[in-house]
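To whoever is on call:

I kicked off a structure prediction for a single chain this morning and the downstream step that reads the tokens threw a length-mismatch warning. I double-checked the sequence; it's 198 residues and nothing unusual in it as far as I can see. Pasting both halves so you can look.
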Amino acid sequence: MAEQDPIYSKAIAHLASLIEDARQRGDRETSSAALATAGVDARPSVRMVDVRISASGLLIFANADSGKGQQMQKNPRAAVCFHWPVLQYQAIVEGLVTLLSEADSDAQWRSVPRDYTLGHWASDQTKAQDHPTALRQNMREYQQQFEWERVPRAPSWRAFEIGPERIEFWPTGWQRLLARQRYLKTPDGSWAVSSENP
């Protein structure tokens, strides 16, 4: 298993530490990242998403019927790029995408902040959105509907996991004078690491 490989574990731990370091330095969106996917026609698409780090990979929530949800199911490869200006650093993760089970999606949903869960109900990402006023009205209606109960997982919202095959850490400041670290999954399932000086 990838999570048992010490080199892989070191890379994931470093990624988690960068997120925490950025948070402590005042970055409010430390776990936000650009998610790149492509359809079966190979046309790329990218958008910002919230990412959670687990021992086995990166977790994101998406509407399974939306553009990105469909792309991740029909062409299950993705890349994620984190950028922390406060650290002058970025990280790139590439790998295979797995649609998690309903039960696993429910378990992940329970850890999502309430405002985000309500937002998932209020926003239909399968089509162009109405005026922001309509979205705010949707939000108020779901706040009232679920006022006294835990917000259930919206049926179309599922957890996806990106199983890393490549993890890179890049400096973005100081003329990029620091070495780039690259972690790669080898054909036998083990991990290797290399550093490249500028």
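Update from on-call: the warning came from a stale cache, not from the record. Cleared it. Sanity check on the structure: The helical segments are 6-24, 67-74, 102-109, 114-122, 132-145.
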